[in-house]
Design brief:
The chain is an all-alpha fold and 163 residues long. The chain has a domain of 104 residues. Helices cover 74% and strands 0% of the residues. The protein contains five helices and no strands. The termini are far apart. The mean pLDDT is 82.
């Protein structure tokens, strides 16, 4: 009885690992394709996302507002984490924990700023390209509100097709 349970658990675990491997390889292939599309034609990739995800002006404004305020929360967390690192430098384990927390918060913060930039500029660029934009324009490190007169761009028809 115990051997049967162990063998069934091993089969289930093997199946789960094989499924996970398949999902990861599929997601990596999809991510490579998306990164290539974003590199070649960022505006066109945005247009495809708008159509495939049914993004409307109202939904974009609502989600932008949520991401905007979440950015301020993350910024406050980063500032607090930097303050904690500055004050607890004498306890090595606390310092390591705080630096790791700051790293995670910074990754989430940059990712959230990338979402805001993508929605505001209506083009999809890769995260490394966005970081280059931040280096050129450090003002992008702070969340920028969506303009009041913002309109979602209507997707242009593909080349060679008539509307």
């Amino acid at each position: 009885m115990a051997i049967q349970e162990v063998s069934s658990m091993a089969r289930i675990s093997g199946w789960a690992l094989a499924s996970l491997k398949g999902m990861i390889s599929f997601n990596r292939a999809q991510a490579k394709d998306d990164a290539e599309s974003a590199r070649k034609a960022p505006e066109r990739f945005w247009d495809e996302l708008v159509v495939s995800a049914n993004i409307t002006d109202k939904s974009l404004r609502m989600r932008y507002a949520l991401a905007y305020w979440f950015s301020y929360l993350l910024f406050t967390g980063l500032a607090g984490g930097i303050g904690m690192v500055a004050t607890i430098y004498s306890i090595p384990m606390a310092l390591i924990g705080n630096v790791m927390l700051l790293n995670v918060l910074l990754i989430i913060y940059i990712s959230n700023l990338h979402k805001l930039y993508t929605a505001r500029e209506q083009k999809v660029i890769t995260i490394p390209a966005f970081i280059k934009q931040i280096i050129k324009n450090p003002g992008l490190l702070f969340p920028i509100p969506l303009p009041k007169d913002f309109k979602l761009r209507i997707a242009a028809p593909p080349k060679g097709e008539t509307p």
